[in-house]
Amino acid sequence: MTTAQTDASADTAGSETDTPAGDHTGVDVIVESALWDAVPEAEALARRAALAALPAGQPAGELCVVLADDAAVQALNARFRGRDAPTNVLSFPAVPSPVAHPDGATEPTPLGDVVLAFETVRAEAERDDKPFAHHLMHLVVHGVLHLLGHDHITDSEADLMEARERDILASLAVPDPYAGRECA
To answer: Which top CATH class is 2-7+25-92+110-171?
Structure first.
């Protein structure tokens, strides 16, 4: 679970945007790998988890969840993090635009992109004996929290981020993903 900083954003052509009533946050889910066809509910689960990760009162924003494969994530990981290996999820926070809208209108704030690798997500779910849907939603929540500025570099940051993940996942009826893990 990693964060990468880039000004590159995913192509949203053909994506589906969800903006719930009373909320001005759009979530695009783009399926880039046919492997995700094995999980027909993946788009809806990703969208639901992304929306749940956003705090109440979050200013209008836009984010994209890309359902990719190991090869695509490995290429991104190598390019932006210097690590030539796939990983489960990458987060790419949007670079703030210094350009003001000429007529003073407010546009949704781009939050960034979250990219998931199907084979790695599946292998981890199987290894940890977790339902694929639960692991997918956990990783989307984790990625969105990175877009919002959360991190887990220090133990105290990790404790705060994991507590936030647990709360969000509980609201989605997903069990604590950290329960039963061994502490270092």
So the answer is: alpha beta
